[in-house]
Amino acid sequence: NGLIIKTPTTGEFAGNYELTIKNANDETITLNINRPLRVTWSNKALMNEQSYTLTIKGATADSIFNLSQDPVDILNFKNNDGNKITQITSIDKSAEYNPATVKIDTNTLVIPESVTATISSQSGKYADVESSITVYPSVLHTITVTDSNQQPLEEVSAILTNSDLLQDLGIEAQYFTDENGQIKVRLPNINEAFTLSLNKQAFATKTYDLVAIENEHTIILTPISSKETQENTTPKFGTGSGGSLPIWLVVIVGFLLRPSLRHLSRP
């Protein structure tokens, strides 16, 4: 039904291998197998003004890889000191398949762009690997939440409606306003609204759409009125917690008592 070849659990697994298969008649066939390097982005999509990583696994320790991209000048490959690089070297960590990790940020874009990163082994021992990803322009939204008297509200919960794109970008879903009633959230600058749901005790829940053409937002929360609070807390007749008789019951009782009242009023 097929042949399953497992990848080593540590160290080097990438490279060219020969597999020889022999049957019962001593007939053999040889297959050439190429196991590629494993290339992993820290996120499924990238965004301007954010930092990410690209990790290469499966080579021997101290392997050197050349880094390139197409189109050029979208990604910035950097080392741990923040300096731009075009090469990265794998480290000796066999349990983690000798990883080589490069830091990445992006140049400013005005529209989303797909970019392909190419990883080439300097020694030629490993086949080149290409990996594509989409980079989005971004906008920083500043949201100020106040009451009807324009007083900032602290500790307001603000939750972004979930979407596949926000998950791919690794954007957090929940935020809380600071002492100035503010939160800041960076979102992709695209023609799409992202819905924010705001909640705070004693105030009505409010939803608000964040659009890229506007990055400064003031949102006013409405307090729950005392009337609404009273209606929600005043005991109702028949609940065992007190309350007045309904008018229809007062009318019926009065009608039934009319003969008795007339009898008592005779001299």
Q: What keywords describe this structure?
A:
single chain; 267 residues; mainly beta; five-stranded mixed β-sheet; four-stranded antiparallel β-sheet; 3 helices
Describe the structure.
Mean pLDDT is 88; it is low at 237-242. The protein is elongated and about 115 Å long. The chain has helices at 164-169, 226-233, 247-264, and strands at 15-22, 28-35, 38-41, 46-47, 52-57, 64-70, 75-78, 87-89, 100-106, 113-121, 129-136, 138-146, 157-160, 174-176, 182-188, 194-199, 206-210, 216-220. It has three helices and 18 strands. Strand 1 (15-22) and strand 2 (28-35) form a beta hairpin. It starts with 14 loop residues before the first strand and ends with a helix. A five-stranded mixed beta sheet has the order 4-11-10-6-8, with no helix packed on it. It is mainly β and 267 residues long.
Helices and strands, in N-to-C order? EEEEEEEEEEEEEHEEEEEHH
Radius of gyration: 34 Å
- Termini distance? 111 Å
Note the main sheet: 5 strands, mixed
Low-confidence stretches: 237-242
How many β-strands, per DSSP? 18
Discrete helix count: 3
Task: Describe the structure concisely for a colleague.
By secondary structure, this protein is mainly beta. The protein is 12% helix and 39% strand.
Q: Which secondary structure elements does this structure contain, and how are they paired or packed?
A:
Elements: E1 15-22, E2 28-35, E3 38-41, E4 46-47, E5 52-57, E6 64-70, E7 75-78, E8 87-89, E9 100-106, E10 113-121, E11 129-136, E12 138-146, E13 157-160, H1 164-169, E14 174-176, E15 182-188, E16 194-199, E17 206-210, E18 216-220, H2 226-233, H3 247-264
Parallel strand pairs: 4-11, 12-18
Antiparallel strand pairs: 1-2, 3-5, 5-9, 6-8, 6-10, 7-9, 10-11, 12-15, 13-14, 13-16, 16-17
